[in-house]
Amino acid sequence: TQDRFGFLAGLLANDDTRHVAWPYVKEHWDDIVKNVPPFAMGTLAFAMSRVCAPAERDDVKAFFTAHPLAGGERTMRQTIERINTCIAFHEQESPKLASFLSGGDEGVSK
To answer: What is the DSSP string of 39-97?
Structure first.
């Protein structure tokens, strides 16, 4: 079971596998809680800090609000903060990158 926990955390942290792992974790949450030591549960929440879209952030926040981690309040605040930082960065920089890639020079330092 400890190996399963580490495997799940790795899948959640990976942008290519999270779309499969996150629904699994939510569906099997009660089983995961029974088999993972309480001190380690924050690692699953922290793995979600790689999320970078408002809808995914809202889903993570809603899930962990409904399923609070004992002693995990700080981890959840940090996770949501990292997600928000990523979202803000993408919102700020995406137009500049798109302009640069399309041959414009908007936002490019000279």
So the answer is: GGHHHHHHHGGG--SHHHHHHHHHHHHHSPPTT-HHHHHHHHHHHHHHHHHHHHHHHHH
What sign does the CA torsion over 19, 73, 62, 81 have? negative
At 26, which helix (H) or strand (E)? Answer: helix 18-27
Residue with tokens 């960065």: 89
What is the total residue count of the chain?
Answer: 110
Which pair of tokens denotes residue 92? 């700020």
Could you report the per-residue pLDDT of 50-109, keeping only the tens digit for each?
A: 999 999 999 999 999 999 988 888 999 999 999 999 999 999 998 888 888 888 765 555
Q: Is the pTM of this model over 0.85?
A: no
- Looking at residue 11, its amino acid is L
Contacts 24+ apart (CB under 8 A), 56-62: 56/83, 57/83, 57/84, 57/87, 59/22
